[in-house]
Amino acid sequence: MNLYEHTIIARQDASPSEIKQLIEKYSKIIEKNDGEIVKTENWGLLNLSYLIKKNKKGSYVHFKIKGNGNVINELERNEAIDKKLLRYLTVKVKKFDLVSNYFGKKEDIEKQESNKNWCPKDKVETKRVSKVILLN
Fold first, then answer.
1. Contact criterion met (CB below 8 Å) for 60 and 41
2. Phi and psi torsions of 51, nearest 5°
3. What's the CA dihedral at 35, 101, 84, 92 to 10 degrees?
4. pTM of the entire structure?
5. pLDDT per residue as tens digits for the range 85-127
6. At the N or C end, where does the chain have fewer CB atoms within 10 A?
7. What is the pLDDT of residues 17-48, one digit of tens each?
């Protein structure tokens, strides 16, 4: 089985319920064609680099998929027809990065970083400087 990262951009006027319906629709297509969704991330409403079909923003949804080429062919065939989508992109990868959250809230990212850098006081070595000499 191949590993794919697949991102879709929905129109800016799509409501959260419509985004949820899109996620369910494409998840069913993937599972129907013997694919497996490893992770789904809703990146939210982001600015586009340039206007696409008169839209300045788009709702991004990212899928991490295990499957063969038939899954991707069927998925992209359905997405090309869908009027709610602005763009889609599929990239074949060697392995998934399931840890990083690139589009999370700043507070969540700071909590993750603080948890990574945390260590107990017993393990920390400290050195004190007893004298400071200033030279002119």
1. no
2. -65, 130
3. -40
4. 0.73
5. 999 999 999 988 877 777 766 555 555 555 555 555 544 454 4
6. C
7. 999 999 999 999 999 999 999 999 888 899 99
> Crossing angle of helices 16-32/69-81, nearest 10°?
140
Domain ranges of the chain: 2-93
Q: Which CATH architecture has domain 2-93?
A: 2-Layer Sandwich (3.30)
CB atoms within 10 A of CB 113: 10
38 in Cβ contact with 65 (< 8 Å): yes
Residue 82: φ, ψ to 5°? -65, 125
Q: Which residues contact 26 (CB under 8 A, 6 or more apart)?
A: 8, 63, 75, 78, 79
Count CB neighbours of 59 within 10 A: 24
